[in-house]
Structures are given as C-alpha cells and as structure tokens.
C-alpha cells in the first residue's frame, strides 16, 4: 500500500476510535513519526494532506526541516526524542513543538535559545507512568514542580503531557496507563495550569489512547512501514 493509502487507513482508525467514545475526530491530531524516513516519504504524506511530523534525532530532524522548507513545504515539526544539553540550540531553532521535556535544565536552555521573533515553543512534559528505569520521563510525583517551573519560562508555552507506556497487547493495561496520564493533566489544571494536549498512543495502541483522551497520536510504522 502507498503512504497515501496508509494515511487514509490511519485516519479511519482515528475516526472510528473517536466515534466509539463519543469524541470529535477533529480534536485529535495525527503526528507522522518520520524518523529515519527519506524526504520523499514526507513529501508523499504532505501531498496526501499530512502536515505534522515528528522526529527523534536532532540533526536529522533539523536537516529535513530546512530542506523541505526550502522546497516550499509548510510543515509543523515536533521533536519527540530525548534531548541532551548540547543539542538544545538546534531544537529551539528548528522545531515548533517539543514533547520530551523531563528536566527543568533542558526547558530553561530551550527558553534561552528560542528566537524571540518566532512563536513560542510548544512544550509537553514527558511522564513515566509505567515506572520503567530504562525509559525517559519525569516521575508522576515530581511532575507538579516541573510543570510550575516550565510554565514560568519565557518563549515557551506548556501545552500538556506526553507518555510512552510499556508495550503491551493488554487493552485494559493500555487504558489504565493512558487514564493515569489524563488524570495527571487534570490534576495540573486543577492547580491552575491550562493544559490542552495529551500526546499518547502509537500505531499499536492509538485506540486505547483516544478512548482515554489523547489529542495527539504518534504514528510511524503504520504509516511509513517498519524502519529499515
């Protein structure tokens, strides 16, 4: 199947999942995870109507963004991978969103390095709801302090939370993890934040994520195929 066909199939999945839980599909953004994929795949997805793309690797993502902007494509770029301190400047310069903030230090550097003439950088805090030591993300107990610190930084807008729970085919566990993320966002909003974004759900579990309130689902494999 072509990328256009795959995109249509994913949109149908999103629509079906939204309808099943009484949500408006228009409230859910498909983020095409284009890491390791060539420009031609992104151009094909763009031709089929896709606008938001997610990258995990700083240099690769910046190079793509610059090349495709020069080619006349207006795309929205989301950084979804871990960020080292020495890579914050290019992230601040190339991306519209960052989903993977779990330390105040990284957010502060992005704030300092974001061009004040550009729109603020949209930020999601990555939370580790499955407690895996190998996985990035702030512990839920430490989330309120991090949210307060990031929300106070200039040139950033704290939009919501991102999570990558452990992979499982157990739909009950999938929904439990995603419900936990939603509850954490509700708790932050009750503390005075104004968060509107839940970045959660991927190719294998987007239905469970949508049922629990996801506003951005991150899909790579089902759209572009397995990584080479």
UniProtKB/TrEMBL annotation:
<dbReference type="InterPro" id="IPR001608">
    <property type="entry name" value="Ala_racemase_N"/>
</dbReference>
<dbReference type="GO" id="GO:0030170">
    <property type="term" value="F:pyridoxal phosphate binding"/>
</dbReference>
<dbReference type="Pfam" id="PF01168">
    <property type="entry name" value="Ala_racemase_N"/>
</dbReference>
<comment type="function">
    <text>Pyridoxal 5'-phosphate (PLP)-binding protein, which is involved in PLP homeostasis.</text>
</comment>
<protein>
    <recommendedName>
        <fullName>Pyridoxal phosphate homeostasis protein</fullName>
    </recommendedName>
</protein>
<feature type="domain" description="Alanine racemase N-terminal">
    <location>
        <begin position="6"/>
        <end position="227"/>
    </location>
</feature>
<feature type="modified residue" description="N6-(pyridoxal phosphate)lysine">
    <location>
        <position position="35"/>
    </location>
</feature>
<keyword id="KW-0663">Pyridoxal phosphate</keyword>
<comment type="similarity">
    <text>Belongs to the pyridoxal phosphate-binding protein YggS/PROSC family.</text>
</comment>
<dbReference type="InterPro" id="IPR029066">
    <property type="entry name" value="PLP-binding_barrel"/>
</dbReference>
<dbReference type="InterPro" id="IPR011078">
    <property type="entry name" value="PyrdxlP_homeostasis"/>
</dbReference>
């Amino acid at each position: 199947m072509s990328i256009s066909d795959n995109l249509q199939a994913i949109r149908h999945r999103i629509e079906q999942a939204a309808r099943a839980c009484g949500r408006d599909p228009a409230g859910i953004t498909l983020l095409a995870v284009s890491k390791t994929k060539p420009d031609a795949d992104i151009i094909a997805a763009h031709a089929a109507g896709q606008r938001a793309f997610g990258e995990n690797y700083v240099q690769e993502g910046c190079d793509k963004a610059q090349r495709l902007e020069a080619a006349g494509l207006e795309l929205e770029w989301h950084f979804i991978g871990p960020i080292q301190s020495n890579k914050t400047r290019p992230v601040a310069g190339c991306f519209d969103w960052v989903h993977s903030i779990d330390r105040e230090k990284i957010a502060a550097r992005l704030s300092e390095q974001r061009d004040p003439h550009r729109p603020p950088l949209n930020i999601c805090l990555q939370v580790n709801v499955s407690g895996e030591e190998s996985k990035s993300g702030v512990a839920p107990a430490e989330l309120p302090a991090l949210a307060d610190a990031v929300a106070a930084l200039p040139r950033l807008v704290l939009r919501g939370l991102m999570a990558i729970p452990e992979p499982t085919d157990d739909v009950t566990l999938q929904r439990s993890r995603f419900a936990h993320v939603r509850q954490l966002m509700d708790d932050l909003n009750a503390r005075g934040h104004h968060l509107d974004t839940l970045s959660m759900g991927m190719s294998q579990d987007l239905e469970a994520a949508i049922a629990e309130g996801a506003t951005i689902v991150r899909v790579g494999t089902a759209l572009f195929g397995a990584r080479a």
